[in-house]
Write a structure and sequence with these properties.
Rossmann fold; alpha/beta; about 290 residues; 4-stranded parallel sheet
């Protein structure tokens, strides 16, 4: 079995292709915060309002990966010309690292307070997270608190992450199945997300994996730090007759995990190390297994 990173790994390899339909309507039964379709940002806000769009991402410690943020912002500005667009980053670690290097990155709470001071009445918050984990939950709480306390901001609307509900999963799996060329008879692709063993949203990746496998295209989903790590997929890969696997980041940007744990050298590549170890330990009958 040959394992390799995706050829010519680029920032936002997957997200770049599907950003325009990452948000779908979700209206909770309570609270002042409303979730809305990405395409309805402008129409959802009164013409007399002073509106702004806040793009929120986890962040990245890899400078070259930030190019993906620029591409996302460009797409948003093209769809909503004349609307103020700002960024915020949810990871305190990423913000601290950036500050140590002389770059100032603001938290969502900081940017939302600044928008209130600047007189914005309607704010659309577009989450760039892949699944609704802890970071997204914190973002929702910040938005609710701001709207409850601010006398200026009349409404805050939040677009949920890329994989926010079952319809999102079906839509994205269908797009990935159609967008990526069908692999050869012995080749498979694994789309790798971040993952979090301690959060219920980690189960989303397992559901995504089921939908991709059900599509019959030899596509799979795994995570770097969740329950469904790539090595857990090995029995299924063997049963499908797959001998070569390409790892593709299912992340907003191709940051540290993509560059080190997926595309890095074997010495520091957690995905390849786990797959190689399990293949040798649990699948000794799998002939000509090779990890590279």
């Amino acid at each position: 079995m040959v394992l390799s990173p995706s050829p010519g790994l680029k920032s936002c390899a997957c997200r770049e292709n599907i950003i325009t339909f990452s948000a779908v309507l979700w209206v909770p039964d309570h609270g002042a915060v409303r979730f809305f379709p990405l395409g309805n940002v402008a129409s959802n806000m009164e013409k007399t309002s002073k509106k702004a769009i806040l793009l929120v991402a986890f962040g990245t410690s890899v400078p070259k990966a930030t190019k993906a943020f620029g591409k996302i912002e460009k797409r948003v500005r093209e769809k909503h010309p004349g609307t103020e667009v700002r960024w915020a980053f949810t990871s305190k670690t990423i913000r601290s690292r950036a500050a140590a290097q002389g770059t100032k990155l603001d938290s969502p709470a900081t940017v939302l307070r600044a928008m209130a001071v600047d007189g914005y009445t309607h704010v659309a918050v577009l989450s760039q997270h892949v699944v609704p984990e802890t970071e997204f939950e914190s973002l929702c709480r910040n938005c609710e608190r701001l709207q409850a306390m601010s006398k200026c901001i009349e409404r805050v609307e939040i677009a949920r992450p890329l994989l926010g509900n079952s319809e999102d999963l079906k839509r994205v799996s269908k797009i990935l199945a159609g967008k990526f060329a069908r692999p050869g008879h012995d080749e498979g692709w694994i789309f790798i997300g971040h993952g979090n063993k301690r959060h219920p949203s980690d189960a989303i990746y397992a559901t995504m994996n089921y939908l991709l496998m059900d599509s019959g295209t030899r596509l799979f989903t795994g995570t770097v730090e969740g329950n469904l790590t790539p090595d857990e997929l090995l029995p299924g890969l063997k049963a499908a007759g797959i001998r070569k696997v390409t790892l593709v980041p299912l992340m907003t940007v191709a940051g540290a995990h993509a560059c080190k744990d997926m595309a890095g050298s074997k010495a520091g590549n957690r995905c390849l190390q786990k797959m190689e170890s399990r293949a040798r330990r649990s699948l000794p009958a799998w002939p000509k297994t090779r990890i590279s």
